[in-house]
Design goal:
This protein is mostly beta strands. 4% of the residues lie in helices and 57% in strands. It has one domain: Porin (Beta Barrel). The chain contains one helix and 16 strands. Strands 1-2-3-4-5-6-7-8-9-10-11-12-13-14-15-16 form a 16-stranded antiparallel beta barrel.
């Protein structure tokens, strides 16, 4: 698994050797989403109005050998620095190599079933699904077209999962003692040859934490696979995800099944129905958490109106807890 790191660093070294950069450019983009969300079983008091904002500062240039260099820094609602990435594109004409904390290969495909607006669990409940090392700074290698197959290979490695964004140069990120918890992710996604509209994908993640203080070993394994088919205005999909967390002699397993179908009524209007069944199992628990959601999306240029109605039984893996919520939002990109 650690060979991913060696390959990535070797590729970077090859890309930067005896090259210079041409003049680049910088730009800023962003989005905002105002929403009204109300439900029962949770959040029965408080202001249902909310707003989410995000700004991104991006820059790009090109080296003399044809390798592109791009940078992205996101800014949070509180105008603090958030995720960032530095990407070297077309390295040796084969792959993109990134130093990044803006997501991970597995988190990008945690639920790809068709939806008009949000995933079935977006408004309520709490689900343990595949997430890999999302939010951790690491090295990522992406091959957009493996051997001309049309499939994308995406891999990432970090020496310290959970360390967060990169800190100042010549410094360490996150905690620097107590545990050693490297992580590796690999995904393979693409369209099936000679079957128009059929997409498939698989992904795995492994993390192991050895406690320096002798408190034991934590191990996490995650995996997912999906199949999605689109014909005309209709898209359907099924996905399965498995998360296994082991701490000492205790093992907890989450098995998640996702189903989604969407219909594109027009170029601007879409509707979808989504279900998730998430089973939690360990030495003392065996319970299903079930989500149902209907969503609708209507676009008007750079503005989108979204509506979602969702409910969940045994919310947050708590027996007998039923929750529902409805959300109306207005999103604008600028």
């Amino acid at each position: 698994m650690k060979n991913i790191t060696k390959v990535g660093l070797s590729a970077l070294a090859g890309a930067l050797a005896i090259t210079s950069a041409n003049a680049g450019e910088m730009s800023m983009s962003g989005s905002m989403e105002a929403s009204y969300t109300k439900g029962s079983g949770y959040k029965t008091t408080g202001n249902p109005l909310g707003m989410d904002k995000e700004l991104s500062v991006t820059g790009s240039t090109e080296l003399d050998n044809g390798t592109t260099v791009s940078y992205k820094q996101t800014v949070s609602d509180a105008f603090g620095f958030n995720d960032s990435e530095l990407v070297f594109g077309n390295v040796m004409g084969m792959a993109d190599v990134a130093l990044t904390s803006t997501g991970s290969p597995l988190s990008a495909i945690d639920d790809v079933t068709p939806t008009a607006f949000e995933e079935a669990n977006a408004l309520l409940g709490s689900i343990d699904d595949v997430n890999g090392m999302d939010g951790t700074y690491g090295i990522r290698v992406t091959m957009a077209d493996v051997l001309g197959s049309g499939f994308k290979l995406d891999a990432m490695y970090s020496t310290d999962v959970g360390s967060g964004d990169a800190q100042a140069d010549n410094s360490s990120s996150g905690e620097t003692g107590g545990t050693s918890d490297s992580g590796t992710e690999i995904t393979l996604t693409g369209s099936v040859p000679m079957v128009e509209g059929l997409d498939v994908g698989v992904g795995v993640y492994e993390q192991e934490t050895d406690s320096v203080s002798g408190a034991g070993t934590y191990h996490a394994d995650e995996g997912t696979a999906y199949i999605k088919y689109s014909t005309g205005p209709v898209s359907v999909g099924y996905q399965k995800g498995v998360v296994v967390n082991s701490a000492g002699s205790e093992e907890t397993q989450y098995v998640n099944d996702y189903i989604g179908i969407s219909y594109k009524i027009s170029d601007d209007l879409s509707i979808s129905y989504n279900e998730i069944e998430s089973r939690k199992s360990n030495n003392s628990t065996d319970i299903d958490q079930d989500f149902d959601s209907i969503s609708l999306s209507y676009s008007m240029g750079g503005m989108t109106l979204n509506i979602a109605d969702s409910d969940v039984s045994n919310a947050s893996y708590t027996s007998g807890r039923a929750v529902d919520a409805t959300s109306v939002s207005l999103a604008i990109a600028f």
